[in-house]
Amino acid sequence: MISAAGELLAVLVTKETEFHETTFVSDPAAPLQLGFIVYGAGETLPRHVHVPVRRSLGVTCEFVSVRKGSCAIDIYDDAKQLIATRELREGDAVLLLAGGHGFHMREDTVLTEVKQGPYFGEGEKQLF
Length: 128
Known about the structure:
The protein is an all-beta fold. It has strands spanning 2-4, 7-13, 23-24, 35-36, 62-68, 70-76, 82-89, 93-96, 100-105, 110-115.
């Protein structure tokens, strides 16, 4: 967990982190939820649909996982001050909830990114 001034900015989960029971690592009030669901052999997840719920978002959150390679991520607070730098390796993931961030690729890297849509392109980013 990376926080500044009482605000949770990011949740980092390394490949080595083990979960032995279902665990949600993000705050239940966060716009994106990050959880690890643990199932035993032979269990099933019943067929289902998600009930539509209209939500109002005040911030765009992102989930990023490293599929291949490695990078460093800089985490900034809302005032654009650097709070932390962390290494991300293959299999690691980070949930970015607030503030800003930047990535520095250490080698050829493939990231998977999930965020709320629709995404309208680079014009949505405020560079600093």
